[in-house]
Design brief:
The protein is an alpha+beta fold. It is about 30% helix and about 25% strand. It has one domain: Deoxyribonuclease I, Chain A. The chain starts with a strand and ends with a strand.
C-alpha cells in the first residue's frame, strides 16, 4: 500500500500534474494539501476518471486538504481539529482506507515570527498532538501524512544559516514535532534515510530547484501498528522538475 503526501499548491493550477501522478506513480492513497479551492471547486470528476475516489475539506483561495484512494471510497472520520471552535482554516481531514486510518495535514507556516501567525502554528501543533494521542489509543494502523511546515533536524535543510530565522526551523516548532514523535509515532522518511539530506520542497525563487537548495517539511508519521508494516519510504523527486509543477515533491511510505 503506497500512501503519498502531496502539497499541490493549488489544485486547479496543478491538475494536469496531479493527474499525471495518479496515472504514473502506482499510489494507492494520495493525501493532498493546499488545494486553494472551495469544496464545490474540487475536481472530483477528473480525479474519478483517473481511478480515484476522494473526500476533501476545501477553502476559497487558501489551505484545503483531501484524501484520494484508488478504486475505493475513503470513509471520512473527521474534518478539522478540536480546541479552537473559531478556527475556520481547512487544514485537517481524516479517513479510513482499507483498514488504515489516514490523515491529511496542512500545518500552519507560522511566518512572520514572532507574532500571531507563529503563535497559531504552535497552538495547532498542540491540537494535532491531542488528536494523535486519541488515534494511538485506538491501537490501529494510522498514518499522519502532510506538509508539517517543520524542518525537524539540521540535516533536513540545504542550509542551516539560510533557514535559521524561519518559523519552520525554530526551537518551538521542532519541539512540537518531537513531542509528537515521543508519543510513539515513527517518522517514515527519517527511518529510510537516518542521515537526512533528503528534500521534499524547493522554493520557486532564487533557482532553488536548479541548485537543489531544498528542505524536508513533508512527513508521514506511523503509529506502532503501521510501523510494523513499514516497507520503505521515499520522495518522487522527478515530479518536482516538471513544467508548472508544485514546489513540493510527492513523499510516500509503503506499508505491507
Amino acid at each position: 500500500m503506497k500512501i503519498v503526501s502531496y502539497n499541490v499548491n493549488g489544485i486547479k493550477a496543478r491538475l494536469p500534474r496531479l493527474l499525471e501522478y495518479l496515472t504514473e506513480a502506482g499510489a494507492d492513497v494520495v493525501c493532498l494539501q493546499e488545494l486553494k479551492s472551495p469544496d464545490d471547486g474540487f475536481p472530483v470528476e477528473e480525479i474519478r476518471a483517473a481511478g480515484f475516489e476522494a473526500v476533501w475539506h476545501g477553502q476559497k483561495s487558501w489551505n484545503g486538504v483531501a484524501i484520494l484512494a484508488r478504486g475505493i471510497q475513503p470513509i471520512e472520520r473527521q474534518k478539522g481539529l478540536a480546541g479552537e471552535p473559531e478556527d475556520d482554516h481547512s487544514r485537517y481531514i481524516e479517513a479510513e482506507v482499507n483498514g488504515v486510518t489516514i490523515a491529511s495535514i496542512y500545518l500552519p507556516n507560522g511566518n512572520p515570527r514572532p507574532g500571531p501567525k507563529f503563535d497559531y502554528k504552535l497552538r495547532w501543533l498542540d491540537r494535532l498532538a491531542a488528536r494523535a494521542r486519541d488515534l494511538l489509543a485506538e491501537e490501529r494502523p494510522v498514518v499522519l501524512a502532510g506538509d508539517y511546515n517543520v524542518i525537524p533536524h539540521d540535516d533536513d535543510t540545504f542550509s542551516v544559516p539560510a533557514m535559521a530565522e524561519d518559523a519552520l526551523m525554530q526551537p518551538e516548532s521542532r519541539a512540537g514535532y518531537r513531542r509528537l514523535l515521543a508519543q510513539g509515532w515513527t517518522d517514515a522518511l527519517r527511518t529510510q534515510y537516518p542521515r537526512g539530506g533528503v528534500w521534499t520542497f524547493w522554493d520557486y525563487q532564487a533557482g532553488a530547484w536548479q541548485r537543489d537548495a531544498g528542505f524536508r517539511i513533508d512527513h508521514l508519521l506511523l503509529s506502532p501498528a503501521a510501523a510494523d508494516r513499514f516497507a520503505g519510504a521515499g520522495v518522487d523527486k522527478e515530479h518536482r522538475g516538471r513544467d508548472k509543477a508544485s514546489d513540493h515533491a510527492p513523499t510516500w511510505v509503503r506499508l505491507r
